[in-house]
Amino acid sequence: MAYELEMSPQLEQIDGEIRDNFRALANGFQKLDKIKDPNRQSKQLEELTGKMRECKRLIKEFDRDIKDEENRNPPELNKQLNERKQSLIKELNSYVALRKTYMSSLGNKRIELFDMGAGVSEPAAEENVQMASSMTNQELINAGTKTMDETDQAIERSKMVVEKTIEVGSQTAVTLKGQTEQMGRIVDDLDSIHFSIKKATQLVKEIGRQVATDKCIMFFLFLIVCGVIAIIVVKIVNPNNTSISPIPGLAPPAPARKLLSVQVMGV
Questions:
Q1: Three-state DSSP string of the chain
Q2: Are the CB atoms for 122 and 115 separated by under 8 Å?
Q3: Largest Cα–Cα distance of the chain, in whole Å?
């Protein structure tokens, strides 16, 4: 039996997990026969589909480990391990076919287990899934290998999309960082301009106050000079006018009489 194979601990663990999932699938389909509500049947089928996906992943991992250990194992053991893998694939496909039968009875046209949601219309289910009873081991192996290859290709495409998304995100982050730094410099320049304008406004106000003060001083000096000139003119024109006090530093005009006597004596 497959359980008596001399497998490595890792292969034994994977094989055990696959057997546990197969038991869960068998019990799940038995419960499905007892469910009468279509909605509950659909939910149960979704849970069983998840178990099938997990089995498919484990079988792929089982196959990779067999290939990794192929050079270290004797040919007979490699043959037995490959037969074990084929039996696992056959059993999984039987559950896939059983699931398809239940889905057809429910009239639920959903995407098949191994379509991977690629968004591409696949042929009809009758062309995609063959009943396990009518398929040979080699056909099951080929179908399982093809499905795994398609899954690997879908995963690689998803990785490329993720890498491109990360690259675009990195470029966008660099661009946003540059724009943020540029905006910071613009804000600093605007602050400097605002400060300069404020200083210039204060300087203009100060100059205006100084100019106004100088004009007032010049106006008062002009009035004083005009007053002094007016007094001097009045004194010269009317020297006998005593109502005007003498201007300090300015000698009073000589009387006319004295001026005439000085002139006669000079003659």
A1: CHHHCCCCHHHHHHHHHHHHHHHHHHHHHHHHHHCCCHHHHHHHHHHHHHHHHHHHHHHHHHHHHHHHHCCCCCHHHHHHHHHHHHHHHHHHHHHHHHHHHHHHHHCCCCCCCCCCCCCCCCCCHHHHCCCHHHCCHHHHHHHHHHHHHHHHHHHHHHHHHHHHHHHHHHHHHHHHHHHHHHHHHHHHHHHHHHHHHHHHHHHHHHHHHHHHHHHHHHHHHHHHHHHHHHHHHHHHHCCCCCCCCCCCCCCCCCCHHHHHHHHHHHC
A2: yes
A3: 174
CA separation, residue 116 to residues 44, 104, 263 (Å): 20, 19, 142
Its pTM stands at 0.40
Provide the percentage of residues in the chain whose pLDDT is more than 70. Answer: 74
CB atoms closer than 10 angstroms to residue 76: 8
Inform me whether the pLDDT recorded for 119 exceeds 60: no
